[in-house]
Amino acid sequence: MDEDDMYRQLEAVGAQFDFGEYEAKAYVTILEHGSLTAPEVAEKTDIPQPRVYDTVRSLADNGLIELHESRPMRVVAVDPEDAFTDIRSTLDDLVTDLSERFRAPARDAEAVSFVTSRQTIRRYLEDVISTAEYELVISLTPSLLSRYEEELIERREAGVTIELLVAPAVDIPDPEEYDYTKVATTTRARRGVTTPVVAVADGSYSVYTPNDALDAGDESYGVIFSRSELGFLVSAFLNTVVWSSSKKIAEPADELPFPRRYATMRRCVQDLVGTNGELYATVEGRDVETAEWATVSGRVVDVSAGTNRETASITIDSDDGRVAVGGQLAALEDVESYEIAVGRDEPPELDLT
Predict the structure, then answer these.
(1) Is there a single domain that holds both residue 118 and residue 206?
(2) Which alpha helices (DSSP H) does 34-101 contain, by range?
(3) Which residue from 245, 277, 337, 350 has the fewest beta carbons nearer than 10 Å?
């Protein structure tokens, strides 16, 4: 399909679906009754008598109904399967051609994006879920959990650690009736109906939107963070504000295997506190004083966390001596971490490509 044909097809599709209020009301009413006179259409839809004839003729011109020129004019419904056959074919050809021209925008082109379309917000939520490689922290409503269930199961089966929060708690399925372990490593419930919808993949790519933004209200917005420094802010908000006011309702019976990867130090320390035996870690991060990127590996000799998880760190006995590692924006430690891998017997490797 050349460009001129594509433009004509777009115009044709646009014209075909350019329903005004009268056309929409008349069409649905005619479908529901099968056959009506023009005056009956006006009576059942409150379309003014002077406008009803133009309205039904417009529908007939688009092949959606038939007009029988009698007195009074009779309007007869056409099976939508037949009426929309040509439109479906046109749309299939058009979408195929448009898809060939589509080039996905680079995700890191902008650090922050503000979107107001509910459909776009939902698309970004799905993208964050599906692109998580090793860690997903997510807060959903019960309806959104149902919507993205398959994507969560797929990521779970791929080995991604998923921390799921569902709110409001009063509306969620009972753990005895729904197997939360198939969609998440750990599931928590929160009482507040104002709990935001949030998703953070690997500590860097994230979406934040208010709880009611995806409902049918007039206003909706979402904020997309594409860089790790900003995604960390969303992750930190979930860790310190939302998680602390939620209740754990499900987690696997067996302990998670090693090696484990983490995007946030708080989540790493939470796992390691109370874990017996020697542990080894590899950390990619930045020197707190010089901001130069550094990779530190060695035996974990200390794990520390503040009372309310406001601070969290580990100490590694590396070849260059002991190194204190904190989370992002660390100031007291030697290194701020961006990715952490913990294992048994020896430091795990990180994919630094």
Answers:
(1) yes
(2) 38-45, 49-61, 80-83, 85-101
(3) 277
